[in-house]
Specification:
Blueprint lengths: L9 H27 L14 H14 L2 H8 L10 H23 L7 H4 L6 H29 L5 H26 L12 H28 L5 H32 L2 H11 L9 H19 L1 H5 L1 H26 L16 H33 L1
Length: about 375
């Protein structure tokens, strides 16, 4: 099936060359960062996690969201998801690759990654997260590949592949649950130290991932003509709707508990995020933008007329995706360090180097996803013919 990725139009090859160029520039900045160290970033003693870990956190959720197409299709026999399942699994593969690359970028030097295995710390959620993420990548790649191969040859999917598919369902939930434990288990960070953080992570994942998948399926249809069907898209849209509402509800519940109980450290973190603290309010505009995007998206999604209209659905999905990225990625991660346990307010702004390296990582994910989607669409068209 690999040969299908080696054939394409001029626009296809131009797109791949553009992504390679972005990756090359990002690699140059990464090598420079490896030589100069943390000076190339906007990180500090008070804010040791920044743009890379924020994107890592968010993309783990996008990867976990593949379960939203796998579960209905394989456990509940929802045939409408048949044309979209492989696309969802390949999205998970690209998303997990992105998370691993962001971890490598945050470490600064590739050799440090071996310390995770050499000096293993099983009591750390971060250790388990770096173990189960590659496993989830492999499971999705293998199951999608062999399912497509079986479909191409008109045979049943092997039993061991079906077993892997069933294993992938709880595995998907576990990768983002473990990611939330990285944060919620830190008592010195009141913004994160909450039992409600895990369901928030899962709800936002099941909103942002399917929202991105809807956008991608529309792009695939536009550029290749392959249509997954309106029924699958609308069912995914309902999942996005409910997950977005649940996520907003959980956020409001957390705000109520903090404000009504007047919990000091938590109040300071929320005050910084929404109104600023100590004359510093770098993240406040982003937090309000995230909230407004979430509310606007819900307004478009709960209305059947705007949800069924593909143009407004596209706007709503984009609003959900960027709202969740701002909230769970940038604001939650950075905001957890402000103020510090000693009351200091040290803000963080990503540097040009961090932005370029992050762009290169997303370009690498887009490159991989383009090749995988080219193979998937090619097989589907071959079977249909």
């Amino acid at each position: 099936m690999v040969e299908k990725a080696l054939r394409g139009s001029r626009a296809y090859w131009s797109w791949l060359l553009f992504l390679l160029a972005v990756m090359a520039v990002g690699l140059a900045f990464y090598l420079w960062q490896a030589l100069t160290g943390a000076e190339a970033s906007g990180l500090s003693r008070d804010v040791p996690w920044g743009f890379f870990i924020a994107n890592y956190t968010f993309m783990v959720g996008v990867a976990a969201s593949a379960v939203m197409v796998v579960l209905p299709y394989y456990l509940h026999n929802q045939k409408d998801f048949g044309k979209i399942t492989a696309l969802g699994e390949f999205l998970a593969v690209a998303a997990v690759t992105t998370t691993l690359l962001f971890i490598m970028a945050d470490l600064g030097q590739p050799g440090r990654a071996f310390n995770i295995l050499i000096y293993a710390t099983p009591n750390s959620p971060f250790f388990w997260n770096t173990i189960i993420l590659p496993g989830y990548l492999l499971i999705n790649l293998v199951t999608a590949w062999f399912t497509l191969d079986a479909e191409r040859h008109g045979v049943l999917v092997p039993g061991w592949v079906r077993l892997l598919i069933l294993i992938s369902i709880p595995w998907a939930v576990s990768i983002h649950t473990m990611t939330s434990f990285v944060y919620s288990g830190l008592p010195a960070r009141p913004l994160w130290n909450s039992a409600i953080l895990t369901p928030r992570f899962l709800a936002s994942a099941f909103a942002s991932g399917p929202a991105l998948l809807i956008i991608l399926t529309m792009a695939v249809r536009k550029f290749t003509g392959y249509d997954v069907g309106s029924k699958a898209i609308q069912k995914l849209a309902l999942i996005v709707t409910y997950a977005t509402i649940i996520n907003l509800f959980l956020v409001l519940a957390e705000v109520f508990a903090v404000v009504y109980s007047n919990i000091g450290p938590d109040m300071e973190s929320l005050q910084y995020l929404y109104f600023g603290l100590g004359g510093k309010s770098e993240l406040a505009p982003f937090m309000w933008l995230s909230t407004l995007l979430s509310v606007a998206a819900i307004a478009l999604l709960v209305n059947p007329a705007t949800r069924r209209n593909e143009r407004t659905l596209l706007v709503a999905c984009a609003a959900v995706f960027f709202s969740m990225w701002i909230d769970k990625g940038l604001c939650l991660v950075v905001g957890g360090f402000i103020p510090s346990p000693l009351g200091g307010v040290t803000e963080y702004v990503p540097t040009v180097s961090e932005l370029v390296i992050a762009s290169a990582i997303y370009a690498a994910a887009a490159f991989m996803l383009t090749l995988l989607y080219k193979i998937a669409v090619g097989v589907k068209e071959e079977v249909a013919a």
